[in-house]
């Protein structure tokens, strides 16, 4: 039963979707003085935005498809984002083994020259040709040389959460597990219906932003009952995680006979992350799972390159997501543009506008948000100027280095290991002190769930980062899910149920 007794609150912008594009737009908008409401039907970053290769990169392979504008923008954004969030983003060197029968050396050198010079590069090293030592190289002995260049690794889900936190701190209303069920025009505004477990209610919006990712076209057609201006192609990308197959902190970018590339990336010190795939997806985006063919594909590409040979028994975890790409009618899923398309529409001149986001990638979310605000400028002439380029994300304030901050944590909190301190610092940056509050010993951190997870951190994630259940905490806020057993997860979920009950009683 809908409760519309109270008058709906009116916002300048209502954003549908809590992935990287949605929170990026909400954050940019509220920082310009606009009132913003964002709703996400599940958890923040629970779909495409946490199923990436966890890279901030220019997209070297996009050069082959002549996506020069996208690559230039992405290359410039690497350094911008590295400055904005150095605790969750770090430089990484990538090695491309040379396979002469796939791409000639001159072509790769040309691509890397463009990669080095298309975007402004201050902190990241340039590319170079390298020769492999047969004895020390993890690659097969027949692979004797390659190329090395720079990109960045990122904690993708935390990038989403930090943008949501910054938006909230500037005044945005961010709600999760809340679905927009419909919206219609009323007196020059959108009247928006939303619902969650507590019930249903209405809000109003001068502009509705559809950043629903894989559901962008479905939202227009089913919930708004309008015609989508573009088709959407869902391209599945899957990854496998295995015990690390080589030492060191560099990633590898492997060429394959089908002209695609696959990354092998150091992951959480103990593992190697291998992906991604590219295949057309036609199922429910809520339930994307790796296929047997994708598993075989990734294992075969790895085994073609590395001395350490993998089998299915080595796989510790798999994850899959769908990239919602604007349909450019390409026959090859790998060639579908990764660029974004913005569609601004009004049924009638007096109607409130709808802006829909098609496509996009993690690296360029901030520029996408700026493009959205540029399109909306005509509706909000009082809008303030762009501000996100130099603004630090939560945890980057006064951040000097991860090692220095981790050392400080170890000194101030008795019983904290160097490994735990580094994990905290890479997750929370200088906000680690807000997590710990005034605690000076691990004995004061509350219930221990195993694997260096204490109630103190869990409580913070519930209070400050929208965490509801164990999956939110173990797979998105932290990456501890690889370590937890089913029985340990059950204990954590029981604690979370109790914690939410306590919060509800306090609020009553």
Automatic annotation (TrEMBL):
Keyword Flavoprotein assigned: yes
Coiled coil: none
Lineage: Bacteria, Pseudomonadati, Pseudomonadota, Gammaproteobacteria, Moraxellales
Domain Alpha-glycerophosphate oxidase C-terminal: 387-483
Domain of life, source organism: Bacteria
Keyword DNA-binding annotated: no
EC number of this enzyme: 1.1.5.3
GO CC list: glycerol-3-phosphate dehydrogenase (FAD) complex
GO-annotated biological processes: glycerol-3-phosphate catabolic process
Keywords of the record: FAD, Flavoprotein, Oxidoreductase
InterPro entries: DAO_C (IPR031656), DAO_C_sf (IPR038299), FAD-dep_OxRdtase (IPR006076), FAD/NAD-bd_sf (IPR036188), G3P_DH_FAD-dep (IPR000447)
Required co-factors: FAD
Family: Belongs to the FAD-dependent glycerol-3-phosphate dehydrogenase family.
The protein's name: Glycerol-3-phosphate dehydrogenase
Organism encoding this protein: Acinetobacter silvestris
One GO MF term attached to the UniProt entry: glycerol-3-phosphate dehydrogenase (quinone) activity
Reaction equation(s) it catalyzes: a quinone + sn-glycerol 3-phosphate = dihydroxyacetone phosphate + a quinol
SUPFAM superfamilies linked: FAD/NAD(P)-binding domain
Top enzyme class: oxidoreductase
């Amino acid at each position: 039963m809908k409760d519309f007794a109270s008058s709906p609150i009116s916002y300048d912008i209502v954003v549908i979707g809590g992935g990287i594009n949605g929170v990026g737009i909400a954050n940019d908008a509220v920082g310009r003085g606009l009132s913003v409401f964002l709703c996400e039907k599940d958890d923040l970053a629970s779909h495409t935005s946490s199923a990436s290769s966890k890279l901030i990169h220019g997209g070297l392979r996009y050069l082959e498809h002549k996506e020069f504008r996208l690559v230039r923008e992405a290359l410039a954004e690497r350094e911008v984002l590295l400055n904005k969030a150095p605790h969750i983003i770090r430089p990484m060197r990538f090695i491309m083994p040379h396979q002469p029968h796939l791409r000639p050396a001159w072509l790769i050198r040309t691509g890397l020259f463009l990669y080095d010079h298309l975007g402004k590069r201050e902190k990241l090293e340039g590319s170079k040709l390298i020769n492999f030592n047969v004895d020390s190289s993890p690659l097969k002995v027949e692979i004797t040389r390659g190329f090395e260049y720079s990109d960045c690794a990122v904690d993708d889900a935390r990038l989403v959460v930090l943008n949501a936190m910054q938006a909230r701190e500037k005044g945005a209303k961010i709600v999760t597990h809340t679905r927009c069920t419909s919206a219609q025009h009323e007196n020059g505004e959108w009247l928006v219906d939303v619902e969650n477990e507590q019930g249903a209610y209405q809000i109003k919006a001068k502009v509705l932003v559809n950043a629903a990712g894989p559901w962008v076209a479905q939202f227009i057609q089913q919930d708004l009952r309008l015609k989508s201006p573009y088709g959407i192609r869902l391209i599945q990308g899957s990854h496998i995680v295995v015990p690390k197959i080589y030492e060191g902190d560099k990633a590898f970018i492997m060429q394959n006979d089908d002209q695609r590339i696959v990354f092998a990336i150091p992951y959480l010190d103990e593992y190697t992350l291998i992906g991604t795939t590219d295949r057309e997806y036609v199922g429910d985006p809520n339930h994307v799972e790796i296929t047997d063919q994708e598993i075989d594909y990734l294992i075969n590409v790895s085994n073609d390159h590395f001395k350490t040979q993998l089998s299915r028994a080595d796989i510790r975890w798999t994850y899959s997501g769908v990239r919602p790409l604007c349909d450019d009618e390409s026959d090859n899923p790998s060639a579908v543009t990764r660029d974004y398309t913005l569609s601004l529409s009004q049924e009638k001149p007096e109607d409130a506008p709808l802006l829909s986001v098609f496509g996009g990638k993690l690296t360029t979310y901030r520029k996408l948000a700026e493009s959205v605000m540029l399109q909306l400028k005509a509706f909000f002439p009082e809008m303030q100027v762009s501000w996100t380029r130099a603004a630090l994300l939560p945890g980057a304030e006064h951040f000097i280095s991860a090692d220095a901050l981790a050392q400080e944590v170890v000194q101030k909190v008795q019983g904290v290991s160097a490994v735990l301190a580094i994990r905290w610092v890479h997750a929370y940056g200088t906000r680690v002190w807000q997590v710990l509050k005034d605690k000076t010993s691990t004995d004061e951190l509350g219930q221990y769930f195993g694997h260096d997870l204490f109630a103190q951190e869990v409580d913070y994630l519930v209070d400050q980062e929208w965490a509801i259940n164990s999956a939110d905490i173990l797979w998105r806020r932290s990456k501890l899910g690889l370590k937890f057993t089913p029985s340990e997860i059950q204990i954590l979920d029981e604690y979370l149920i109790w914690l939410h009950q306590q919060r509800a009683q306090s609020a009553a």
